[in-house]
Hints:
Distance between the termini: 95 Å
Radius of gyration: 31 Å
Number of helices: 10
Helix content: 25-40%
Amino acid sequence: MRIARLTSPQQGAALMVMLVIMVVGVAAVLVSSLNSSALNNSRQQNTSYALAQAKDALIGRAASDANLPGSLPCPDAITNIVNASGVPSNIPNDGIADLLVGNDCPSYIGRLPWKTLGLSEQGDGQSESLWYALSPNFRDDNSNHINSDTQGTLNVTGTQTANQLVALIFSAGKPLATQTRSSTATAFCPTTNSILSFSLCANNYLEGSNANLSTALTPNSSYQAGNFDNSVINDQLLFITRAQLMQPVELRIAREAKSCLDNYATVMGNRYPWAVPVQNWYLLGENNTRFGRIPYRKPLNDNKIKDFLAALDSLQSQVNICITNNNNGNALENAGKTLEDAAKALRNAQSPPLSTAVTQPGKQAGDQAQNNNMCDTINNNPSNNIVQTNLNATLAALASELANQIATNNSDQTVRCDALFQSSYWQDWKDLVFYQVDSAYRPGGGGGSAGIQINATGNHRAAVLVARAVLPPKTLPRQRTVLSDYLEMPNAHAGQNPLAPFSGYRSSDAQYQTISNDLVVCLDGGSVNCK
């Protein structure tokens, strides 16, 4: 057999050239693939960073808000809104949160208000601005009441599943086949139910239910999570749960209460005040009561004031119930009648201990609560609650009047928490904050060794506890006079001596979800050992 041989040097050279071309081609494809993969990875990293940064900024903003802790800003407008003079009051996509229209955000989905949050303008991995959806219950409006019991209304399905969420941050990703993001062309936008440029309409960025209409009258609660390379839903999102938002807010409230009580102890020879009994929420301390809620001032002997404050408290409880349950009309009317009578008794006293600035709005709140169907009215429109308006006016005047009494009587053993008690948010939190003082550091106590322990360690003079979200099988609404509706065992052990240790688990602990999620903070007269 004869083996074929190359007939010329040119043929060998040609084969070598072809081989080189093939190697170069394969290398080019490989490099292109690697470059594409590296680019995708880089974009994903940028997107993840942008979403995480936005989430941190929103939570930080909620925890530090001066007027309504726990609140979040409205989304940035995706449509022009003009005021009565025809001047735009909300400019689309300018990085600034929308102004409220009445008591509501103009839209509950829009761009992330990065300027309002103090962020630099940074988009996702596609250099697109982030989108943001908000639960109406957490809007930054003073008619809103936010505390550990406030429920999120947003739900997510798809690649992630969660419910009762406070807010969502979206990365819209690259446009899909049906999406156009022109800034000049316009069309009907289902998200706003109006004509908008393509670059402002959410359905040119977000897919599925994410781009649904979401206004004050028809807020959207259902959203979908996808993947960046999905051809149907490529929206990636990061959500904020109620616990993630409220934990730093609850810690802030606990520290403000701690500061108030430690300051009191500094003035009063390292002695802390008597507490308010859980069963008798008068705002005033009761002698020999070492566990309860935080008092406004020392015990009073005036029964008319006690009756008035108890009636105020009872009516507020019934108003809160009517907001979530409109079948409690009789209880509201009865509480209104009790408050009206208590206000009249104060006004008719020979030497009225409280002025008409306090009793007049209190009487009006009582009168209004007795109107037929008032509970239905409150339930249907909580933001236009005339009973609550007068209750707020009563409490504000009461706080101011007590503060004036304190200023003229410095020997009065009063808990000085003006910044907290007169804040716009203390009324939302006062039921959830509890306090325990050790026997040695009560008014008139002998001092010395203290015995309050937290997680079986330390020997503290006092402790502040904040009730977090209810754990099953408990449900909302809570009954104010039932301690176990707020604190779990072993924390619901009012005033035992010696005390059982209080327990404060971390959110990462298994016991946090099953045994107790109460927040516990120690007090030692401002010692650095209690932070």
